[in-house]
C-alpha cells in the first residue's frame, strides 16, 4: 500500500495559516478518472489534508510527504486553485475536528471534495465544487483559460525571439 499521509494521533499545535489555502486536484488511481482532491494550507512547504480511505481518520502530509504520496501512488498534480477563507481560525478549528474523527467515504455525498468543502465553508469561504469530480471541480473558467493561453503565447513569443523576461 502506498503512502497516504499521517493520522493525527495526538492534539498538535500547528500555526496553520488557513488564509493561505488552495484546493489541489491530483490524478486518480485505477478506474478513477475523476481524480482526488486535497486541501493545501500555508505557504512554502505547508501541509496537505485529505481523506484517504473508505473509513478512517483523515490524513495530513508535509511537502515531502506529498511528493512521496504522488510518487508512490503514481499520481500527478492536475491543478492547484487558491481559495479565499475569510475566517481562517474557524476553518482551522473545523479541520482539527475533522482530523480527530473517523470519516466514512460514501462515494458521492461524503467524499474527498466534500471534506475540503467543509473546511472552507467553516471559514466562511465560498469555493464549492459544481462536480464531485476533482478534475472537473477545479477546471478553470473560460476567462481563466483565455488568460492562461495568452500568457503562454506571450512567453512563447519572447522565447522564440530570445528576449529575456524580467
Per-chain topology:
Layout: E1 21-26, E2 36-41, E3 47-50, E4 55-56, E5 59-62, H1 63-73, E6 77-83, H2 88-99, E7 103-104, H3 112-122, H4 134-137, H5 142-160
Antiparallel strand pairs: 1-2, 1-6, 2-3, 3-5, 4-7
Percent range of helical residues: 25-40%
Number of strands: 7
Distance between the termini: 45 Å
**Main sheet overview:** 5 strands, antiparallel
Please write the string of helix (H) and strand (E) elements.
EEEEEHEHEHHH
Number of domains: 1
Overall shape: it is globular
Number of helices: 5
Describe the structure.
The protein is of the alpha+beta class and 166 residues long. It has one domain (21-138). 34% of the residues lie in helices and 19% in strands. The protein has 5 helices and 7 strands, in the order E-E-E-E-E-H-E-H-E-H-H-H. It has helices spanning 63-73, 88-99, 112-122, 134-137, 142-160, and strands at residues 21-26, 36-41, 47-50, 55-56, 59-62, 77-83, 103-104. The chain has a 5-stranded antiparallel sheet with strand order 5-3-2-1-6, sandwiched between helices. Strands 4-7 form a two-stranded antiparallel sheet. A hairpin with a 5-residue loop joins strand 2 (36-41) and strand 3. Helix 2 packs across helix 3 (112-122). The radius of gyration is 17 Å and the shape is globular. The chain starts with 20 loop residues before the first strand and ends in a 6-residue tail after the last helix.
